[in-house]
Design goal:
Elements lengths: L2 H22 L1 H10 L17 H4 L1 E8 L9 H18 L6 E7 L2 E9 L4 H8 L5 E6 L2 H13 L4 H5 L4 E7 L3 E7 L8 E6 L1 H12 L6 E5 L2 E4 L11 E4 L5 H15 L4 E9 L1 H54 L6 H30 L4 H33 L3 H29 L12
Antiparallel strand pairs: 1-3, 1-11, 2-3, 4-5, 4-8, 6-7, 7-10, 8-9
Helix pairs in contact: 1-10, 1-13, 4-9, 10-11, 10-13, 11-12, 11-13, 12-13
Length: 448
C-alpha cells in the first residue's frame, strides 16, 4: 500500500470509528451537543443494546415435553411447531425480545423460555402452559359483517363488541379432527402447497363446511391468530384438501408445522423456574462494564510499557476494535449476555495477542540491521501465519459451540467469532498502517 493509499485508508477508518462512537453512545453525544450549545444540530436517535436475561432481569423457564404419543420421526417437527406457538403467545403477552429454544438431550426434549423484563411470571406461565388451539372459521355474510362493524363503531366503549370478529365466525371444525398437515409440491411438483388430512368425523364436518362456503374464504387460526385464509373452490370430500397460495417452501413448511402443533398437542410441564430481578441484572451489567474498562486499561498500560510507541498505536487500533464491535452488536441486534460479554473481552485479548506477535517479530528483524519500515513490514508478514492459525482455530471452535451449543453458549460463541475477525482486521491493517505513517529514525528509543 502506497503512502497516499495508506492515508486514505486510515482516514476512512477514522471516519468509521467516529460514526461508530456516535452510533454506540448517542445519549452522550446529544448531551455534549446541548452542553456545547449546538442545539441547532439534529438529535442522534437513541437506540439501546439488546440485553439478555442475566443483564436485564426477567424469568427463565424450562419445560419438559411429553412426546410419548408422537412418533419418533415426527418429534423434532412437533417441537418446532410448539416453539412457534409459544413464541407467538409470549409476543402477544407483550414480552420484549423473548427467546424460546428447543433442547434435546438423551432423547428428552425440553423447551427453554427466557422472558426478559417480565414482572408477571405467573401469568406468562399460565399462557405458555395452555395446549395450542387450532380452529377453522367461515366467512360472514356481507350484511352480518357490516352490522358488526357498525355496532363496533357505535360501541367504542364496549369491550365485548370490539372483540367480536366481523369477518369470520366460528365453526365446529377444530384441530382435534385434523390428523396431519404436510408439505406438498402440487401436481407439477414445483408449487409448494400444504396438504390437510382429517379424521372420519372431521372429513364430514369439512365437507359440509366447504359445501356451503364455495367461493368464500375459510380462515385457519392458531391461538386466535390468523395464519391462513384460503378460498374454497369446490366442495371437498374424503377428508383431504390442499391450501394453495404464493408460498415459498419454507413458508409452506412453517404453515404445516403450525397446523400440526394445533392438531397434535404436545403436553409440557414446567420443571424449572428462576427469576432475576432488575437490580441484580443492573448490578451484573455494571460489573461487566467495569471489568471491560479495567481490562482495556491494563492491556494499554502493558503495551505502552513494553512496546512503547507501537504499543500506543496498538491501543488506538484497540479503541477502533471496541467501537466496531459494539456497532455490530447494535446493527445486528445481538443479545448481550454475561457470556457474550465474556466472549467479546476474550476476543479483545486475542486482538492484542496479534499485535504482540507482530512487535516481537519486528524486534528480531531490527536486530538484523534492517531499517524500521522494513523491519515492521517483515515482522508483520512473518507473524501472520501464527496469527492466522491461532485465530482461525479459535473461530472454528466457536462455530462448533454456536451450532451445537444452546442458550448462553451461543452468545459466547457469536461474540467470539465477530471479535476474532475484527481483531485480526484491526491488528493487521489498522495498527500496522498507523505505524507506516511515522518515520522515527531519530527517536528510536520509542520503538525498541
Amino acid at each position: 500500500m502506497t503512502a497516499q493509499n495508506n492515508k486514505i485508508f486510515l482516514s476512512i477508518i477514522l471516519i468509521l470509528a467516529v460514526a461508530g462512537a456516535v452510533f454506540v453512545f448517542p445519549k452522550q453525544v446529544n448531551n455534549f451537543l446541548d452542553f456545547a450549545h449546538f442545539g441547532f444540530m439534529p438529535k442522534i436517535p437513541e437506540t439501546s443494546f439488546k440485553l439478555g436475561l442475566d443483564l436485564q432481569g426477567g424469568s427463565h423457564l424450562v419445560y419438559q415435553a411429553d412426546l410419548i404419543n408422537i412418533p419418533e420421526t415426527e418429534r423434532a417437527e412437533a417441537m418446532a411447531g410448539l416453539r412457534d406457538v409459544i413464541e407467538r403467545r409470549v409476543n402477544v403477552f407483550g414480552v420484549s425480545e423473548p427467546q424460546v429454544a428447543v433442547q434435546e438431550a438423551g432423547g428428552n426434549f425440553r423447551l427453554i423460555v427466557d422472558l426478559p423484563g417480565i414482572d408477571n411470571t405467573q401469568e406468562a406461565i399460565k399462557m405458555i402452559g395452555k395446549t395450542p388451539f387450532l380452529e377453522f372459521k367461515e366467512q360472514r355474510a356481507d350484511e352480518e359483517r357490516d352490522a358488526i362493524l357498525e355496532k363496533q363503531k357505535n360501541s367504542a366503549s364496549s369491550t365485548q363488541a370490539n372483540q367480536e370478529d366481523p369477518y369470520f365466525k366460528q365453526t365446529n371444525l377444530t384441530g382435534q379432527y385434523l390428523k396431519k398437515a404436510s408439505l406438498w409440491l402440487g401436481q407439477n411438483g414445483m408449487t409448494p402447497e400444504v396438504s390437510l388430512e382429517f379424521d372420519e368425523q372431521g372429513a364430514r364436518i369439512f365437507e359440509e363446511l366447504t359445501q356451503k362456503n364455495i367461493g368464500k374464504q375459510i380462515a385457519i387460526y392458531i391461538d386466535n391468530i390468523l395464519i391462513s385464509a384460503p378460498r374454497v373452490q369446490e366442495a371437498i370430500s374424503g377428508g383431504k384438501a390442499q391450501i394453495t397460495g404464493d408460498f415459498t417452501i419454507e413458508q409452506a413448511k412453517e404453515l404445516a408445522r403450525n397446523l400440526n402443533s394445533g392438531a397434535l398437542p404436545v403436553p409440557i410441564a414446567l420443571i424449572s423456574q428462576s427469576a432475576i430481578g432488575p437490580s441484580l441484572g443492573h448490578f451484573s451489567l455494571n460489573q461487566s462494564l467495569k471489568a471491560g474498562l479495567y481490562g482495556f486499561l491494563a492491556i494499554c498500560l502493558f503495551l505502552i510499557i513494553v512496546y512503547r510507541l507501537p504499543g500506543f498505536f496498538s491501543c488506538l487500533a484497540l479503541i477502533a476494535y471496541i467501537l466496531f464491535s459494539l456497532s455490530l452488536f447494535k446493527i445486528f441486534n445481538i443479545t448481550l449476555s454475561l457470556s457474550g460479554i465474556a466472549g467479546a473481552l476474550l476476543s479483545m485479548g486475542m486482538a492484542v495477542d496479534a499485535n504482540i506477535l507482530i512487535f516481537s517479530r519486528s524486534r528480531e528483524e531490527l536486530k538484523t540491521g534492517k531499517n524500521y519500515t522494513q523491519a515492521f513490514s517483515d515482522g508483520a508478514k512473518r507473524a501472520w501465519p501464527s496469527i492466522r492459525d491461532g485465530n482461525f482455530t479459535t473461530i472454528l471452535v466457536a462455530f462448533i459451540l454456536f451450532f451445537l451449543g444452546s442458550g448462553f453458549i451461543k452468545g459466547f460463541a457469536l461474540t467470539m467469532i465477530l471479535g476474532n475477525l475484527l481483531g485480526m482486521f484491526c491488528a493487521i491493517l489498522v495498527a500496522n498502517n498507523i505505524l507506516k505513517l511515522f518515520n522515527v529514525r531519530k527517536v528510536s528509543w520509542l520503538w525498541v
